[in-house]
Amino acid sequence: METAHQSNNPSLPLDRFGVRPTRYSSGNFELQLRCQVRFLRAVRNELKSKQGLPWKQRLEAWKHGFSCAAWHLYQLDKNDPRQYLNDISSRLKTYRINGFFNPVIDNKLVFSRLAAVHGIPHPSVISNIVKGRLYVEGAAPGTALPELLERSLEKFPQQVFRPNWSGGGQGIFFLEQNQGGLKLNEAEVTLTEASQLLSGLDRYIATAFVDQADYANQIFAGSANTLRVLTLWDYEKDEPFVAALSHRFGTLRSAPLDNWHGGQGGICASVDPHSAKLGKGAITTEKRELQWSARHPDSGSSIEGVVIPHLADVLMGIVDAASHFPFCPLIGWDVVVTEKSFTVLEANPMPAFNVWQVHQPLFTDERNRRFFKHWNLAPDEV
Q1: Helix H or strand E segment including 16
Q2: What DSSP character marks residue 20?
Q3: Closest CA to 277 of 305, 312, 301
Q4: Beta 187-188 vs 290-293: how paired, if at all?
Q5: DSSP symbols for 131-180
Q6: What is the maximal distance between C-alpha atoms in the chain?
Q7: Entry pTM
Q8: pLDDT value at residue 5
Q9: C-alpha distances in angstroms, 324 versus 233, 294, 320, 329, 346?
Q10: Nearest alpha-carbon partner for 284 in 308, 255, 254
Q11: Which of 140, 239, 290, 375 is the most exposed place for a label (fewest CB within 10 A)?
Q12: How far apart are CA 295 and CA 140, in angstroms?
């Protein structure tokens, strides 16, 4: 059974100093149950999958631990499956890596507080919604929701609302106040209508909108286009490192989000960390077919060859951010590159690895393989 990293330094027994021993459960059983739930959800999704594969290939995919979608996405009829983190391992075991800290990082409100404490660039938290009530810091108790919303829009005319727990862009919407009035996801809305919408929500967070750098706007201005960074922990050096990079861009089909997985319309490009150049973009169609393009399908702007400004500084900043979370040795970061710096939109303790592995398998990098081998998730050799 996989175990967390243990220090090589010998330790003294606590009872020598009169400290009562810890007799609480290690939590292994609870973690195993959560892993099983994730696995059962994956099985359910596989049975509902629209990805058509001949039965011979389907059985071959399952034999190697991959879903039909992953088998097709990674072109495993041509590539070596041993070089990839497979779906069964990901679902059954990766939750144990961060353990009970998964919900801490995954909670958008909690993570925003942690980011603020550690000085990690992060959008300002404007308000929280709990059981239909809007809570704005500094507002007088009992203030009506429409008035609270109106005041917050005066200070933050562009706001992003998202559930405290969510994934895949679920539940996210944008509210913007300008001279033309109030808009929700580009649709005109009155203050009363927006207030009625918010009053039906629970466990939501509102943050300030982030202006992305020009290169991202030129490729597609209809979404916040995120750099996806995977950090892992090097147990030999006792420090985090950047394990994989990619960059998502929205399209007319995915806007106002840049969602790529599951055929939701976005485009996902590779990133060379040394030259800071984007590679070709991968697109999954509604029929889950994989296509490649050097240009954005809607704007026509070049993707391949575009240089991400100050990428080296961005990656140094992300590694520094990851160093504050040694209890979470695996984190996927959603990053918006700005003109002079970067902003972390959120951190994902259980990221979808296909956003990186569609471009390059994780285990071709020896540091990555050592990390996952530490958790019994990678073969001895590839």
Answers
A1: none
A2: P
A3: 305
A4: unpaired
A5: TTEEEETTPPTT--HHHHHHHHHHH-SEEEEEESS--TTTT-EEEEEETT
A6: 71
A7: 0.90
A8: 46
A9: 12, 37, 7, 10, 15
A10: 254
A11: 140
A12: 51
Alpha carbons within 13 angstroms on the beta-carbon side of residue 338 total 12
Question: Any idea which residue has 């050799």 for tokens?
Answer: 381
pLDDT in tens, 88-138: 888 888 999 999 999 999 999 999 999 999 999 999 999 999 999 999 988
Task: Determine the angle formed by the axes of helices 145-155 and 191-198, rounding to 10 degrees.
Answer: 110
255, pLDDT greater than 60? yes
Contact (Cβ atoms closer than 8 angstroms) between residue 267 and residue 283:
yes
Sheet of 158-163: strand order equals 133-136, 125-130, 204-208, 158-163, 173-178, 181-184, 187-188
Rounded Cα distance between 51 and 284, Å, is: 11
Whole-number CA gyration radius for the chain: 22
**Rounded distance between C-alpha atoms, residue 274 and residue 245, angstroms:** 11
**What pLDDT score was predicted for residue 6?**
47
Please determine, for residue 215, whether its predicted confidence score (pLDDT) is greater than 60. Answer: yes
8-state DSSP, 62 = H
User: Which tokens belong to 245?
Assistant: 């990079």
**Checking DSSP bridges between strand 290-293 and strand 331-337, what pairing results, if any?**
unpaired
Question: Is the bond into 349 cis (omega within 30 degrees of 0)?
Answer: no
Instruction: Tell me what the mean pLDDT of segment 197-201 comes to.
Output: 95
Give me the chain's average pLDDT, please: 90
Average pLDDT for 170-197: 92
Alpha carbon separation from 204 to 6, 10, 52, 127, 140 (Å, rounded):
38, 46, 37, 9, 20
Instruction: Please give the structure tokens belonging to residue 200.
Output: 């039906």
Q: What is the mean pLDDT of residues 352-375?
A: 96
pLDDT at res. 58: 82
Sign of the Cα torsion 70, 72, 73, 76 reads: positive
CA 65 to each of CA 1, 87, 291: distance values in angstroms, whole numbers, following the listed order:
19, 6, 24
Residues in the chain: 382
Is residue 182 predicted with pLDDT exceeding 60? yes
